[in-house]
Amino acid sequence: MKPSINRRQFLKSSSLLAGAVALPQIIPSRLLGANGQTAPTNQITFGCIGVGGMGTYDMKQFLGLSGARVVAVCDVSTKTRDRSKQVVDASYEDRGCAAFRDFRELLARKDIDAVMIATPDHWHPFIASAAAAAGKDMYCEKPMGFSHEHSRKMRDAIRKHGRMFQAGTWQRSGRNFRHACELALNGYLGKIHTVEVSVDGPQFKSYAGPTDPQPVPQDIDWKMWQGPAEERPYHPARHSGDWFMIRDYSPGWIVNWGVHHMDIALWGCPELGTVPCEVECSATWRKEGFTDTAYQWRATYTYENGLKLIFKDQYSMKQGCRFYGDAGWVHVDRERMDGGPLSLTKLEMKPTDKRLYESKNHADDFLQSVR
Question: What's the pTM value of the predicted model, to 2 decimals?
Answer without folding.
Answer: 0.88
